[in-house]
Amino acid sequence: MSAKPMTHRQIMEALSGLLLVLFVAMASSTIVSTALPKIIGALDGSQSQYTWVVTASLLTATASTPIWGKLADLYSKKLLVQISIVVFVLGSIVAGMSQTAGQLIAARAFQGLGMGGVQALVQVTIAAMIPPRERGRYNGYLGGVMALATVGGPLLGGLIVDTSWLGWRWCFYIGVPIAVIALVVLQKTLNLAVIRRENVKVDYVGAALIALGVSTLLIWVSFVDSSFAWLSWQTYAMVGAGLGILALAVWVETRVAEPVVPIQIVKQRTTALSIIASLAVGMAMFGGSVFLGQYFQIGRGYSPTEAGLLTIPMMAGVLLSSTVAGRLISISGRIKPYIVAGTLILVGGFAGLSFLDHDTSLWYVGGAMALVGIGVGMTMQNLVLAVQNTVALKDIGAASATVAFFRSLGGTIGVSVLGAVLAHRVTDNLTHELAAAGVQSGGSAASSLNLSALPAAIQHLVRVAYGDATGHIFLISAVIAVVGVIAALLMKPAALRSTVDLTTADVTTANVATADLATTDLATAPQQASADEDEDAIPAEALAR
Q1: What span, in angstroms and rounded, lies between the C-alpha atoms of 278 and 276?
Q2: How much is the average pLDDT of 337-341?
Q3: What's the N-to-C CA distance of the chain in angstroms?
Q4: What is the rounded CA–CA span in Å between residue 165 and residue 161?
Q5: Where are the domains of the chain?
Q6: Collapsing DSSP states into helix, strand and coil, what is residue 239?
Q7: CA-CA distance, 124 to 78, in Å (whole number)?
Q8: CATH no. for 8-203+256-521+533-542
Q9: Which of 203, 210, 342, 407 qualifies as a cystine partner to 379, CB 3.0-4.6 A?
Q10: Is residue 202 helix, strand or coil?
Q11: Whole-angstrom Cα distance, residue 20 to residue 189?
Q12: What is the helix, strand, coil percentage profile of the chain, to 5?
């Protein structure tokens, strides 16, 4: 069946609202990145709470991502995007009203539900409009928006907290009007067929078990070696409970009709390797970049605005590499070489950052950050694209959300683990420095990030301790990123298809471990799906040309 494809103009009109809301979601994290040291200081929070402000939103975004993706295969993608925006806006308002670090963590957890929806549904919606072969070109626009959010976010966050008549609360309020504008734009420009499958249930139990299991392990990571020993009954109880809950989640996923993480998709070679690479990239990227703002402010003594400016090399690398790689992928139809190159460059960048201390040359830091940015730009979106190329349109939501889920999971684990390592190393370094100076208050000094309340001499020792400890977590990030290189090398080369949905030839030749199952699914898909269009929806056959 042939149908007239969407024109470039139609695609760009629809993309305008999607890119705007993606910018809001991305910026919500990057705005906070440079402002967080001052925010936690103002709320009299600790290093552990600093980590959990980031971890809380990542955790709920991770847990909700596969649910949003599954819902996108069942209901209106447009409505779901709008709902996720509303949740995000409410979370932002509550976060801005927080009076304690605990309240801020809870608000960020709620905000993460909306962030997870936005990040998953933008990918799903674009996949429903654009064939994989052409999607590389538009992924360049995605990379540009991501770079703009990550470059502009830290700068904007720094300016906000440095402006006396605004204050840190506007780091959360600032995204509200932009999100409302995105809501209006999407209502006018996003027109997609609504494809529903009858008698389908969403696996809320599986999602809840995954979130609970991961949360238990992350809480253990945050408190081990500080509140209790590595070998203690608390460790045995929390690790045992976490692993037991995750094992139960796997059991549930293999038995429910509509698993939140589809096993038949995860077992495909391309998907499995993309998931492994996404875990590694997420752990390295989120875990490493979250602490750069803290390094520049606490370890080097720069203001939030200056810290935002100093992160530009990394964000410029994301913009440049995602745009160039996206266009080259569309021209060649090949994706593996760029993923392999990106993971290798990412390892090199983190290896360079592993040599940081409190007086490393800023030129050197900028060069290493640029390499990290280039590596991220070449891998993050393209790993999703590699998976989307192997699945049918009816499964695009679940497949896209699965990769995004594991990437966010990697980021959540990375932030939590690296934050715990940093806190422990800072405490050790500071205790040693203070003892050498004849002061016996290392623990209390290290637990607070409100440096302005400390004497000048102690402030200097705290900065040295943070600056010298940061390089260690980037070394860990480099080791983690090596796993991504191995996964990328093991991926089988495949040409990107030029149709939105799989054809019979694609099913026959696709790189899947369960080809028979995939063929059966495609053969029965017409009986399982029915097009139920909105008044302004484009014909369903235009999406499955």
Answers
A1: 5
A2: 91
A3: 6
A4: 9
A5: 8-203+256-521+533-542, 204-255
A6: helix
A7: 11
A8: 1.20.1250.20
A9: 342
A10: coil
A11: 12
A12: 75, 0, 20
Q: Which amino acid is at 257?
A: A
Please tell me the distance from the alpha carbon of residue 141 to that of residue 326, in angstroms, as a whole number: 9
Q: Residue 205: enclosing H or E segment and its boundaries?
A: helix 204-223
Instruction: Please say whether the beta carbons of 267 and 514 come within 8 A.
Output: yes
CA-CA distances (angstroms) from residue 251 to 12, 209, 302, 365, 480? Answer: 42, 11, 50, 46, 28
- CB atoms near residue 475 (< 10 Å): 15
Question: 96 or 131: which carries more pLDDT confidence?
Answer: 96
**Which 3 state secondary structure label does DSSP give 46?**
coil
Higher pLDDT, 194 or 524: 194
Residues 6+ apart with CB under 8 A from 250: none
Task: Report d(CA 385, CA 374) in Å as an integer.
Answer: 18
Higher per-residue pLDDT: 282 or 89: 89
Name the DSSP letter for residue 297. Answer: I
User: What are the tokens at 313?
Assistant: 């090399």
Q: Which of the listed ranges 184-193, 221-230, 471-480, 492-501 does the model predict with the highest average pLDDT?
A: 471-480
Q: Report, as an integer, the average pLDDT of 224-251.
A: 86
184 close to 352: Cβ distance less than 8 angstroms: no
Q: Which two tokens stand for residue 378?
A: 């070449």
* Burial group, residue 416, by CB count within 10 angstroms (0-12, 13-18, 19+): buried
Q: Are 129 and 14 in contact, with CB atoms under 8 Å apart?
A: yes
**pLDDT score of 523 more than 80:** no
Six-digit token string for 217? 């392990």
Long-range contacts of 358-361 (CB under 8 A, 24+ apart): 358/299, 358/300, 358/463, 358/464, 358/466, 358/467, 358/468, 359/467, 360/467
Which one, of 376, 379, 372, lies nearest residue 335 by Cα? 379
Q: Which of 285, 221, 218 is nearest to 245 (CA)?
A: 218
Q: Within its chain, how far is the Cα of 214 from the centroid?
A: 16
Tracing tokens 């040291």 back to the chain, one arrives at 37
Residue type for 102, please? G
What is the SS3 assignment for 357?
Answer: coil
| Residue 442 CA from chain centroid, whole number | 34
Residue holding tokens 């993606």? 22
Q: What integer pLDDT is reported at residue 503 of this predicted model?
A: 56
CA distances from residue 493 to 131, 336, 541 in whole angstroms, order as listed:
18, 6, 29
Q: Which of these ranges, 23-27, 43-47, 196-200, 231-235, has the smallest mean pLDDT?
A: 196-200
**Whether the Cβ atoms of residue 36 and residue 293 lie closer than 8 Å to each other:** yes
Task: Show the tokens assigned to 493.
Answer: 């080369």
The b-or-e profile of 13-37 (16+ CB within 10 A means b, else e) is bbbbbbbbbbbbbbbbbbbbbbbbb
Task: Check if the beta carbon of residue 80 is closer than 8 Å to that of residue 72.
Answer: yes
The β-bridge partners of 495 are 334
- C-alpha pair distances (Å), 26 with each of 39, 51, 116, 383: 19, 18, 11, 18
User: 50-68: b or e for each residue (b if 16 or more CB lie within 10 Å)?
Assistant: bbbbbbbbbbbbbbbbbbb
